Automatic annotation (TrEMBL):
PANTHER family: RNA POLYMERASE SIGMA FACTOR RPOH, SIGMA FACTOR RPOH HEAT SHOCK RELATED. InterPro entries: RNA_pol_sigma-70_dom, RNA_pol_sigma70, RNA_pol_sigma70_r2, RNA_pol_sigma70_r4, RNA_pol_sigma_r2, RNA_pol_sigma_r3/r4-like, Sigma-70_Factor. It comes from the Bacteria. Belongs to the sigma-70 factor family. The gene is rpoH-2. GO terms for molecular function: DNA binding; sigma factor activity. Coiled coil: none annotated. This is RNA polymerase sigma factor. GO terms for biological process: DNA-templated transcription initiation. Keywords: DNA-binding, Sigma factor, Transcription, Transcription regulation.
């Protein structure tokens, strides 16, 4: 039985869906007013008009079992982030740009809260996590044998079969406390007692973590240093859970597929150069 929706959430949804959509000229003017003048009334009007996007996307994410109001809140955070990052001069509609940030915010929330064990750690696993159920539903026609499921999913999503099997296991169960007894006996050991400590020494882990953080900081800094249009291309082509094609991005930006490819190539060169220059060790003068 579906739990009754909170009345405040219901009222919020009704209000959001009743707001009028903005035409392109109004949207552009509001975005300019916020970017150039930090006009909060313009920001409020822009956000209010497109809160319906957060509500709509949240409805599609409910299948992961999270409260609708939490998902909407995450969508609103993505919407605010989009308003802060949006460049009204790049030719794309704000609604298109905001939808990407809303989905990204909800995906991050779902993956962060799905399990104590981190569910997806790379692009292929994120793709699996968010498309696995849909793909399984398409395959559930009685023609695919149980032992062929992982292989069929791997082919459909173009990911390694081993990762499909791991993800199926992770999504099939629930978190179990490590303090839970292994058996019903009073003298039974906890599961914690059975875990072998095969981790690297603390010093090694700290050094590895510091190096990983340094590399990530360099990469993020390099991407942030790009012009807005090139930054968007790199994010949507290389850092997104569902990478977009050159043609799709070109349509949004109002430029040719070849021009997107040229901008992507230039942006990658800039990122590489930025990382190399920033990663050089400092030379101390005598």
């Amino acid at each position: 039985m579906t739990p009754a929706r909170d009345p405040h959430t219901s009222r919020f949804i009704r209000t959001a869906m009743a707001e009028d959509m903005l035409d392109a000229d109004t949207e552009h003017a509001l975005a300019l007013a916020w970017r150039d003048e930090r006009d909060e009334r313009a920001l409020h009007q822009l956000i209010t008009a497109y809160t319906r996007l957060a509500v709509s996307v949240a409805g599609r994410f409910r299948r992961y079992g999270f409260p609708l109001d939490d998902l909407i809140q995450q969508g609103n955070l993505g919407l605010m982030r989009a308003a802060e990052k949006y460049d009204p001069e790049n030719g794309a509609r704000f609604s298109t740009y905001a939808a990407w940030w809303i989905r990204a915010s909800m995906q991050e929330y779902v993956m962060r809260n799905w399990s104590v064990v981190r569910t997806a750690t790379n692009a292929a696993q994120k793709k699996l996590f968010f498309h696995l159920r849909r793909t399984l539903a398409k395959l559930d026609d009685g023609e695919v044998r149980r032992e062929d499921v992982s292989a069929s999913v791997a082919r459909a999503l173009d990911v390694p079969e081993e990762q499909v099997q791991i993800m199926l296991g992770r999504m099939a169960g629930h978190d179990l406390s490590l303090n839970t007894p292994q058996s019903g006996a009073d003298d039974g050991r906890d599961w914690m007692d059975a875990i072998a400590d095969d981790t690297a020494p603390t010093e090694d882990r700290v050094l590895e973590d510091l190096e990983e953080r340094r590399r990530r900081k360099l990469l993020y800094g390099a991407v942030q240093s790009l012009p807005a249009r090139e930054q968007r291309i790199i994010v949507e082509r290389h850092l997104s859970d569902s990478p977009r094609t050159l043609a799709e991005i070109g349509t949004d930006l109002g430029i040719s597929k070849e021009r997107v490819r040229q901008l992507e190539e230039r942006a990658l060169q800039r990122v590489t150069r930025h990382v190399r220059n920033s990663g050089r060790p400092e030379v101390l003068s005598a």
